[in-house]
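[scheduler] slot 2 assigned
[scheduler] job type: sequence-to-structure, two independent chains
[scheduler] chain ordering preserved from manifest
[runner] begin chain α
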Amino acid sequence: MECPKGHGKLQALSVRSIRINRCRECGGTWCDRDELRLLKDKESHGDYCWIDFDLWKDRDKFRASRQQRYQCPRDKQPMTTVRYGDFPVTVDLCSKCHGLWLDKGEYDEIVAYLERMVNTHTVGDYLNDLREEFLEIFTGPEGPISEMKDLDRVLYLLQLRFAVEHTNLAAAAGALPKY
C-alpha cells in the first residue's frame, strides 16, 4: 500500500499482535476496519478499553471537516475527513473498506480523549454505558467473554464515580457489615 500523502510505500508493523501500516516519512498510520479498536483495547490500561471506538457505528454523528483529499491506500477511493461527535480529532475514512488514516500523533490524541472521557463521565453517563455494555454481551462485536469484561470495567468505573459524586452515601455503604 502507498501513503495517501504521497510518501511511498507503507511499512507493515505488528503492534501488540495488531497489524498496521505506517509511513516512515510522515508517521501516518493506516488501520483497516476494527484495527483501531483492537489496538486501543490491547494498549489501554483497562479503564477505557470498554469504549467501542467504531466510527461506523453511528454515522449520523459524523461532522464534516476540512477535506484532506487523500485516496484510500487499500482501494484508491477518495477518503472523507470527519470528526466524530464532539471528538476533537479528525480522521480520514474510506467509505468502501471502512479503513482509516491517522496522521502522526492522532492516535495519541484519541487515547487522551478517551481518558478524559472516562474521567469526566457522571454516574448517569456510566449507567447509560452499563445498559449499552449489557446489550453488547449478546450483540457486540467482540464476543460474550470480552463484552462481559467490558461490562465489569464499566461497573468498576461506576463504583468509583459514585464514590466521588456521593461521598456520604459511599462512606455509609462502606460501613455496612459485609456478609
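[runner] end chain α
[runner] begin chain β
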Amino acid sequence: MLNRKKQQRQKVVGFTLIELMITVAVVAILAAIAFPSYQDYVRRGQLSEAFTYLADFKVKLEQFYQDNRNYGTNGCGHDGTAQRVNFAAPGVRYFTFACDLGATNQLYTITAAGSAGSATGHIYTLNQNNERSTTTFKGSAVTKTCWLIRGDEC
C-alpha cells in the first residue's frame, strides 16, 4: 500500500501532445518564412557571377581594342587568326556568355544568360558604352537599363 501511494505522488515528466503540436506549428511557420528568403539569397549570390564576368569580358575587349582598333574581325575578341577573348571562361557555373559584334566591328554586346541553379531565367547585357540592361528577370521579360538583382527597380 505504501508503495502504491509513492507512485501516485511522483510527478510525470515529459511533454503533452498539445505542447508538441504547438512546437511543430512554430517551427513550420519559421520555416515557411525563412526558406523563401534563403532561396532569394542563394539566387542573388549566383547572379553576381554574371556581373563579375561581364565586367571582366568588357575589360578584355577594351584591351583587345587598344591593340587592334576594333573589337574583332571574326567575332568578339577574334583577330582573324585566333580567339583572343575566351567567353567560355573556366570556373563559370551558372551562366553562359555570348558576344555579338556590330556592323563596323566598333560595337559589341556581351550577353550573360542564366543556365543553371537559381540563375536560370535571368539575362543581362553589357555593351561598349558600359550600358547595362536586364532583358529577362526571374523568367519574365523586362526592359530595364540596369542589372536587376531584387525587385523591379534599378
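[runner] end chain β
[qc] chain β: Residues 17-68 form the longest helix (52 residues).
[scheduler] slot 2 released
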